[in-house]
Amino acid sequence: MSNDVTIIGAGLGGLTLARVLHVRGIPATVYEAESSPETRAQGGMLDIHDCKGQLAIEAADLMEEFHAIVLKGRQQMRILDRDGSVLFNKLDDGTGGRPEVMRAELRRILHDSLPADTVQWGHKVSGTRTLSEGRHEVTFEDGGTVATSLLVGADGAWSRVRPLVSTAIPEYAGRSFVETYLFNADTRHPGAAQAVGGGSMMAPAGGKEIFAHRETGDTLHTYVGLTRPRDWFAAIDFTDARAATARIAAEFDGWAPELTALISDCDTGPVLRPHYALPTEHRWGRVPGVTLLGDAAHLAAPNGEGANLAMLDGAELGKAIAAHRDDPETALNEYEQAMFLRSAAVIAEHEQLNESLFGDDVSRLVEKFQQER
């Protein structure tokens, strides 16, 4: 097999793939639209599951580096009622299988484990096209091009590689998050800090939810979930932080003040995060020389699995390529068939969880967490 592997996207999935190939002696080049690793914030905490993300880290031979960035105590989980009463509280006793890390730190250890020239920053893709003999060409916005015999789209929800294999387009999933932060929470926002506890907290009700977790630096990072049409959010001017905050907080009128403080007392302007999804069982026929991983392949509304699945995709694809060095089509076919089944099963399971999370009966959610934890 030609060692001509081109990966579009330097997120967790793309970098995991590059690392797994690297430790097996197969070079790859990653093209990323961002100009540098520090171009933008990389999001908040991620729980990395022992049955998914940690398997990928093992395949990447980075377990020691991973353990060094784990945030101790953050596996605590609390479920609160809208009046602030505690319905479920699971402490972090150090034995849980989902340790929390900061996404930026996880991306850093993956990136730093690669040869210096592996990631080519500042390469935003404008289009892709099929050439002959299973090769494909990628065009960048600066006019440059690259041709490759093995192209991997790890470029997220709005993948520029996906059209080579699928006509599917993500659709609005009916819900959105509004993201807020509280800084120096223990001293400046003690009520909210106590409600959240040492790890994560969720307070769900019919069609709405407040989810928050404690990150590094005494920061509370909150995702306010609302099941509303896009037009409802479009009517809110998010450039007016005060008015937007008040409008979102009004949806939780009557809730406990320590919960609504996570919205009304935010130290940054609220940021809208609409949820989009591909069909639950999105799949495609084998197209020579190209495949997808992560959100490019199986975008779903946030469910706690996206990063884990993307990393596992990257690891499994890397292992398949290494196992079939002279037969890339067998590698891609084996990877895709397993990935289709894996992602569909996870998404279906978490659609049921979302029914509990955004339904009217919070006891179903509590019961599920009691069974799992």
UniProtKB/TrEMBL annotation:
Ranges for domain FAD-binding: 4-346
The similarity annotation says:
Belongs to the aromatic-ring hydroxylase family. TetX subfamily.
Chain sites annotated for binding FAD: 47, 103, 295
Stated role? An FAD-requiring monooxygenase active on some tetracycline antibiotic derivatives, which leads to their inactivation. Hydroxylates carbon 11a of tetracycline and some analogs.
Assigned EC number: 1.14.13.-
User: Which positions make up the signal peptide?
Assistant: none
What GO molecular function annotations does the UniProt record carry, in alphabetical order? FAD binding; monooxygenase activity
Query: Which locations, inside or outside the cell, does it occupy?
Result: Cytoplasm
Organism source for this protein?
A: Actinomadura rubrisoli
Alphabetized InterPro entries for the sequence: FAD-bd, FAD/NAD-bd_sf, TetX_monooxygenase
Q: Where, by residue number, does NADPH bind?
A: 40
Give the comment on domains: Consists of an N-terminal FAD-binding domain with a Rossman fold and a C-terminal substrate-binding domain.
Q: What's the name of the protein?
A: Flavin-dependent monooxygenase
Keyword Membrane included in the entry's annotation:
no
Q: Which reactions are catalysed by this chain?
A: a tetracycline + NADPH + O2 + H(+) = an 11a-hydroxytetracycline + NADP(+) + H2O
